[in-house]
Amino acid sequence: MSTSVAEKLAKKSNKRQNTKQVRLKLVYIDFWSALKLSFLAAVAIAIITVVFFFLVYTVLQQTGVFEQINNLFKTVAGKEAQDGNDLTAIFDLGRIMGFAAVLAILNLVVVTALGAISAALYNLAVKVTGGVLVGFTNN
């Protein structure tokens, strides 16, 4: 006797599943845990920032966008640009990656501090509000 897949699914849907639901209040966030987690997130963002700047620079360099901008600058500036002012010297890989590194370090400090401040502010707000009610189930 062969049963179809639809019949098996119908039999399963008629069964009542015993799902247990639990409601808990989040009343405290550990400061050091939030600090470490925000630091790890900031490290990931810093790595993404540096890789992003490198990839964008490489694409713009390979497509010749910097050369076109430099030619436009020389055309608009005229004689002053012919005396050695060159935009490609300003937009070299070393300066772009240096800027990306400085931006990544600044971002690292800011994101870590924001994570720590957020945890501290949440812990202060819990004293007034009583916390956030969170529901969990065992599905």
List keywords for this structure.
139 residues; mainly alpha; two-stranded antiparallel ribbon; 6 helices; 2 strands; transmembrane; membrane; transmembrane helix
The count of DSSP E runs of length 2 or more, i.e. the number of strands, is 2
- The pLDDT mean sits at 86
What structural class do helix, strand and pairing data support? mainly alpha
Which term fits the overall shape? elongated
Describe this structure in words.
With 139 residues, this protein is mostly helical. The model has no long low-confidence stretch (mean pLDDT 86). The chain has helices at residues 5-14, 31-63, 65-77, 79-82, 87-90, 93-129; strands at 21-26, 132-137. The longest helix is centred in the last third of the chain and has 37 residues, at 93-129. It is built from six helices and two strands. Strands 1-2 form a two-stranded antiparallel sheet. The chain has one domain (37-137). Helix 2 (31-63) runs antiparallel to helix 6 (93-129). The two termini are 33 Å apart. The chain crosses the membrane at residues 37-60, 99-122. This is DUF3566 domain-containing protein. Residues 20-137 form the DUF3566 domain. InterPro entries: DUF3566_TM. Keywords: Membrane, Transmembrane, Transmembrane helix.
